[in-house]
Amino acid sequence: xxxxxxxxxxxxxxxxxxxxxxxxxxxxxxxxxxxxxxxxxxxxxxxxxxxxxxxxxxxxxxxxxxxxxxxxxxxxxxxxxxxxxxxxxxxxxxxxxxxxxxxxxxxxxxxxxxxxxxxxxxxxxxxxxxxxxxxxxxxxxxxxxxxxxxxxxxxxxxxxxxxxxxxxxxxxxxxxxxxxxxxxxxxxxxxxxxxxxxxxxxxxxxxxxxxxxxxxxxxxxxxxxxxxxxxxxxxxxxxxxxxxxxxxxxxxxxxxxxxxxxxxxxxxxxxxxxxxxxxxxxxxxxxxxxxxxxxxxxxxxxxxxxxxxxxxxxxxxxxxxxxxxxxxxxxxxxxxxxxxxxxxxxxxxxxxxxxxxxxxxxxxxxxxxxxxxxxxxxxxxxxxxxxxxxxxxxxxxxxxxxxxxxxxxxxxxxxxxxxxxxxxxxxxxxxxxxxxxxxxxxxxxxxxxxxxxxxxxxxxxxxxxxxxxxxxxxxxxxxxxxxxxxxxxxxxxxxxxxxxxxxxxxxxxxxxxxxxxxxxxxxxxxxxxxxxxxxxxxxxxxxxxxxxxxxxxxxxxxxxxxxxxxxxxxxxxxxxxxxxxxxxxxxxxxxxxxxxxxxxxxxxxxxxxxxxxxxxxxxxxxxxxxxxxxxxxxxxxxxxxx
Length: 642
Description:
Elements: H1 27-30, H2 35-54, E1 60-66, E2 70-75, H3 92-98, H4 122-128, E3 130-139, E4 142-149, E5 152-162, E6 167-174, H5 186-199, E7 204-209, E8 216-220, H6 226-233, E9 245-249, E10 255-261, E11 268-273, E12 276-277, H7 283-302, H8 315-319, E13 322-328, H9 346-366, H10 368-400, E14 422-427, H11 429-438, E15 444-449, H12 461-464, H13 471-477, E16 494-498, H14 503-519, H15 521-525, E17 529-532, E18 537-541, E19 544-549, H16 552-564, E20 573-576, H17 585-593, E21 600-602, H18 608-619, H19 623-633
Parallel strand pairs: 1-7, 11-13, 14-15, 14-16, 16-17
Antiparallel strand pairs: 1-2, 2-6, 3-4, 3-6, 4-5, 7-8, 9-10, 10-13, 11-12, 17-21, 18-19, 18-20
Helix pairs in contact: 2-4, 2-5, 7-9, 11-17, 14-18
């Protein structure tokens, strides 16, 4: 990787502010104090090391979760500058860790050409939100160390020895008085580190978890960069072009794009700026989409695949089944909003568009068989889109008539306030009947479903509209589907899937979640989708209040509590619920629907890529990856009736 040839010492560290309010308002800096915010601490430190890799100085990053949930991040970059900062009069390294908005990432004369850390708050915020932090630096022939407690310096930067190496090692323990949990999830960190390695071609990232007796370790190194990324994302899908299309450009705005078409119906485009996932897109994504539409339409017209009378293919037609990753490096990125999820630099759109116009047109001319196969799919998608439009208009016309607005089987609630209303989507008429009788009619609606549901992973949108199993769900939620979905029009603040705790129930849940993810994704992103948790067991004895247990751990605890009261196990009868229909209305209300006592699991979407991969594996056509997924995850499954 080409090194950004610039001095990196104390003068490049600019100081904008102090550490005020970080501990009082951590959500402003890391989003939340939940498990998501906890993992964000790791990302901030790793991002600093990756910035060294982007500058051409770092080749290896090691992340270790040590016993006690201590995090250690090591890199072989240049090491944080250790000389005295001209403004703060303390070492540059200590400045970076104690002053908010101090870092080597500001202005044209900074120590980095490009950087993910736009605001430069990473190191100081991690320090402020940690019980303790220890930083060891190797550079300029020496080894230096400094220590902090809750952001306060307890050991200033001190030379502790000599070293002929360079790099920075950061160890920290997140503050338990701030975070809801300190338990890191290896898989969450693993997904992020894999992503970073894909985006930084040639960077070697090792993630280790040494908390358990049997350590976990993942090793990431991808010489193929984004091509490897796309191949990974499509590993469980049938490909139209087996080798991803790859485009790149160096210069002031380095661009890297990889794309591949599959036989799937969903569109998956992921965009990054300086390795930041711009989940809301921005000008780089707009330029890519615009060019994609133009190049394919020009090729189709030039080769008589489309006639003039046919008009142009729309962007949605051309993007059906595409998986693409766009990565741009911008010296001074302008992000919209504090979350840094949408790029605003207007000049980037034209640069991306110019690259794709040239390189994609060349590829199509050199690979006519692939070009025709992709365009055949695009034309087919266009016809399906028109069929979906007609079906959608039919649904809209029906919805305009008040007498047919709501599905016949829906037992609606009396309240019209979406914030307090909730709808239970219930498997089967029997359970639906109990739910209707047991509910609180003021704010709880019940929609029973029956029969086999459509697997939308294998269906285009024209098959969704008018489907007798899904149409009641679409109309009940009231916000449309696909591109027409409007989160502000939902009729219920909570959409709760209530299914049996067996294989069939799990299948129903997966089918519905796949539908919500593919066609009502904002509903999931906004946190409106929930899974009800009915009990698995009921323990009863004359003269004793019934005890409901939701899993095997609950059951073991209940037996232990009973025995402590001097009641033998054989004196207590146990009922194993096979389905919701076995519960009468009072039991269903008491265990699964009463807001004061029920257990609801909110469905979140922290990682869209992982979710897309999982749905593709579980609901797609390729049996091999599904079998592998089941074999790898079977050991985690409990309470599954066969």
